[in-house]
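User: I'm putting together a teaching handout on how multi-component assemblies are represented. Below are the sequence lines for each component of a complex, exactly as they appear in our records. Could you produce the 3D structure of the whole assembly as structure tokens, so the students can see both representations side by side? Please keep the chain order the same as the input.
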Amino acid sequence: MSRATTSIAKFTAMEVMHNRMLWLVAGAALVSIGIGFFGHSLAITESQQIQATFMSASLRVFAIFIVCLVVINTISRELNDKSLEMILSLAITRSSYFFGKLTGFNIVILSIVLIFALSLLLAAPMVKVFVWAVSLYCELFMVLCFSLLCVMTIRQVPLAICVVLGFYFLSRTINAAILMVDSPIVVTNSLSNSFVSTVLHGIAFVMPDLSNFTQSAWLIYGDIIWSDVGTILLQTAVYSILLMGACLVDFYRKSI
Amino acid sequence: MFIIDPQRPLSAIPKRIVILFVLGLLLQISWYQAQSNISAQAEKLPTTPASGLLNMVSMGEPIALAKILMLWLQSFDNQPGISIPFVSLDYTELEQWFARIIELDPESNYALLSASRIYTEVPDQMKQRQMMNFVYEQFLQNPEKNWMWLAHVTVLAKHRLKDSQLALKYAHALADKKLSNEVPAWVRQLEIVVLEDVGELDAVRLLVGGLIESQSISDTKELMWLEQRLKELEANESVNSH
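Assistant: Of course. Below is the structure of the complete assembly, with chains in the same order as your input.
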């Protein structure tokens, strides 16, 4: 890693931390602990499982929102302040800038995952939380890459946030939607049905299957299936390469 | 540390802005007050959505959705400002909800615990039978996991419904299915409890004691709840004997 990349990564991480992100993450962890105890207090059985499920589901949602907002807000500010132009006027390549930003945000998501995993230890055993945390990290890394792509391409904060959240929602639901369309209650063989099915299958080709990521079931039921973890790591590697490639293509095409 | 931005004094705010703010605040408080006076109306259980739709809504977290739905269903009798007895719930709809919850989270025992231990406690034999039948059907689908709940409804059929034939049918089902060795032997011998004239309190004691001994129940809150139910039975029995 070049010195320029390291410096950009360091200052990106510092900037985010100085913006009280850790307070936000700690607050989210506390709210999640509260949600967990709320579920625990309502249940008449499986109370520990309900606590772990409520905590893991809420932590995941909080993590996605925080990463999406932090990345889009930070890059958007840099674009508006013209700091990007200033940095690129130095002897720094666009790829060094991109990978510097990516590494900096990567440090940020690692700290989010660490804090959230520590709070989840209140409700689930360590090995299971570790696997959950690895999967959450993978999910967040893809959201980070997609947020970078969106903010650099779209440049409008509200629109970029909506696109990232839409992408996330679609990635988690695309398989369920395909199942629904492919096995309708009333079999019609209509043109519209096959059209919707083709479109959904087409979308699924370019979407990661996030429905297998960061599952509460790992925390509460049975043993961890390590082959699932391997699939998740592989899916993350494949899709991250695609997203990073798309980001760099767009970034190099931009006239700044 | 938080950095506090320098602020202008309160006197810098124009009076009309302050009036607008206070007016807004008062209107909101009055609005809330007016709303809370509206009398609550009992709502019916909504129709169950299709499994595919629930899977989609869960966003890949069917277990989290199942747990949320279960707690929502459990507290359906306590709607804002009103308490509905379980007996006035639509049990056919309730069954559908349980079935959906089990589809979402097949490992969980929560739905069957509620079906067999909570929703069978209503003073309506038709509804009791409906819930018992639901538990029986679930047992037939997955005997290894659901034997515990059928054992409970067997005792209920004998002592609450006073229907020995139904209790025998359930006890036969428990004996007939080839359950693994992990299932305690007494479960297969429940027919004896049904055939012999064992009182309800003793039968429940036998059942709960057996479940605790075989470590089929480990959740502390469930144990506390069972203990409470046993005490209630004991109190009822002593009232009846006096």
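A couple of points students might notice: The two ends of chain B are 70 Å apart (CA to CA). Strands of chain B lie at 78-79, 82-83.
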